[in-house]
DNA sequence: ATGAAAGCGCTAACAG
DNA sequence: CTGTTAGCGCTTTCAT
């Protein structure tokens, strides 16, 4: 037979109410009783039924993490950060991948109406240009915290890195290295991170009296071979770029592949810089200059912000943006 | 007010039982009624309360995935595979990292006594040498399926790759390339994958009349700088190995770093082969020869096996081992 | 400090 | 085919 609160109550000649309160450390219960209850609970390997407790209390001790992809070290590190905080707080983490599909993102959030989670951490898809489905959670008092890929229109906590500055720094670095025609690989026109990085790029061009050329902005898709073609087309032109910035991790690899196929030498013929957290950046051929994002800490900070909201009465996270800076790590894909 | 089954029942002049059955497509309910119930449910945005339903039915539509790490592309790809089938089946995935700590693994499994999950997918830690904590789930009728890092003593479904053969193939390849003194980097003496890979290694040595030298087996830890030292010590010796096999992904990088520091040329002075799923293997300097594991498919297969068990009456997965082969991908870290 | 009782929202057994 | 009834295990007033 299963050990429930009733079992304990009967064995100790107490009511279930008392046992419940004792287990939850209620101030109403005497220390002595608490000890006895807890001792027996341990002895009989009592485990509280989560479903019963959630049903009654409305809290599930579970949060959800929704991200576009995981075969990407930025998100790997970020969920590491999230998991570390959740584990410490005794919370459980539900894990969802959208594969950049807005429809999936909506379906996943829809399911959260069911009381499955107490809070949500999300990095939206490249397709997400309005936040109606996310706002729906607010009415359910489920706090949402964004990290990295945020939605501007939501008033909640957001953890980002300094995307504008990073775009600027990356561009300026290439210019300093002698580039005059710099391509920017992006993934979305709606994503704030993409726009911010591009604005930084534009500003750096302007500050250096270089013209902005729309043809140098390449919107990549969620399809490697398609991206490969796009980049190849870019690089076979006579007036091909002499510098490329990959604003998301997976695109750096594609650039390397294209250059290898076209026998373009990095960094002599084209310089490359990637927004990337790959451990192996150092080991690439040539080592990749990166904008390295504080992925682990961003995940951690997002989780911390969410738990702060969960511990408040009114459940709504502060509407504030936390910026954790990225760093430029110069390696041999931009300098010899 | 919240829309519950009662709301629907009242509005349609039905009992809650009928509504519940209609929503669950019970054969007892007329098509007409089903239509009406579902239509209203949609209209009022009814969302079933998961906790109530789980409490009553004993099923949570949730599975757990427990892995040692995620900053590792093997596990990234594996959870991708898992998530893809879970999403398709309408299941939710709880995600846990053990960081190679047995104590954490035990604590996590202990929590599953609470009815939180219907089934478990696990790849055990390097420390896990007995399965008492895992067996405890059997008594709760919670099926467990292993993938990659299995526990031999458990009688359940296990998804692995051909570790023995891979160890053999890797070793034979190095021998074919002229290596005579081959080091093997391992992470555990208990882990079946490690032992299998080592057995393959030994067999290949024997088949080629090469002596087995215990000093060539290096047990690495869960600490990068420590591993770096171990490998460095190995490679500064006069009679240092002329070939190295990294049996887990993260160790390949360490080897490259050591070789760079010691100015050892790969592959001329030492040849390297890694068990790895890094997309970037091609892009390393030099490109890394790998044993590439079918990570995504292993994750997928594990999930499929688990769902098969979940759909059975008796809840116990077939005691069978599914082997999905790895492949040797030869690149320039072993041949010029 | 402890207990009685009500009920969270849903499902399953049994009647009709 | 539909409804009645009875809880799942727990938490939470409200009494005592």
UniProtKB/TrEMBL annotation, chains A, B:
CDD domains: HTH_LacI, PBP1_LacI_sugar_binding-like. Keywords: DNA-binding, Transcription, Transcription regulation. One of its GO terms (molecular function) is DNA-binding transcription factor activity. SMART domains: HTH_LACI. It comes from the Bacteria. Residues 3-57 form the HTH lacI-type domain. InterPro entries: HTH_LacI, Lambda_DNA-bd_dom_sf, Peripla_BP/Lac1_sug-bd_dom, Peripla_BP_I. This is Substrate-binding domain-containing protein. It comes from Limnovirga soli. The lineage of its organism: Bacteria, Pseudomonadati, Bacteroidota, Chitinophagia, Chitinophagales.
């Amino acid at each position: 037979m299963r050990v429930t609160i009733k079992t304990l109550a009967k064995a100790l000649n107490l009511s279930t109410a008392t046992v419940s309160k004792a287990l939850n450390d209620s101030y109403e219960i005497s220390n002595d009783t608490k000890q006895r209850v807890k001792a027996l609970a341990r002895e009989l390997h009592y485990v509280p039924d989560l479903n019963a407790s959630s049903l009654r209390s409305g809290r599930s001790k579970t949060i959800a993490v929704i991200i576009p992809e995981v075969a990407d070290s930025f998100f790997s590190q970020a969920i590491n950060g999230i998991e570390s905080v959740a584990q410490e707080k005794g919370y459980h983490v539900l894990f969802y991948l959208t594969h950049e599909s807005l429809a999936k993102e909506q379906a996943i959030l829809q399911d959260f109406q069911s009381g499955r989670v107490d809070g949500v951490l999300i990095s939206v898809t490249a397709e997400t240009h309005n936040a109606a489905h996310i706002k729906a959670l607010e009415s359910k008092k489920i706090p949402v915290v964004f990290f990295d890929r945020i939605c501007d229109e939501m008033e909640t906590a957001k953890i980002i890195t300094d995307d504008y500055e990073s775009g600027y720094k990356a561009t300026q670095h290439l210019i300093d290295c002698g580039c005059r025609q710099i391509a920017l690989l992006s993934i979305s026109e709606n994503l704030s991170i993409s726009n911010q990085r591009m604005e930084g790029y534009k500003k750096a061009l302007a500050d250096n009296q270089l013209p902005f050329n729309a043809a140098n902005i390449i919107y990549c898709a969620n399809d490697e071979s398609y991206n490969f073609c796009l980049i190849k087309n870019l690089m076979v032109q006579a007036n091909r770029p002499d510098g490329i910035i990959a604003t998301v991790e997976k695109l750096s690899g594609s650039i390397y592949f294209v250059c290898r196929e076209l026998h373009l030498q990095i960094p002599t013929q084209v310089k490359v810089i990637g927004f990337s957290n790959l451990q192996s950046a150092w080991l690439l051929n040539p080592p990749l200059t990166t904008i390295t994002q504080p992925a682990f800490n961003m995940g951690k900070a997002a989780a911390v912000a969410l738990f702060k909201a969960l511990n408040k009465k009114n459940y709504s996270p502060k509407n504030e943006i936390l910026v954790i800076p990225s760093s430029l790590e110069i390696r041999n894909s931009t300098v010899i």
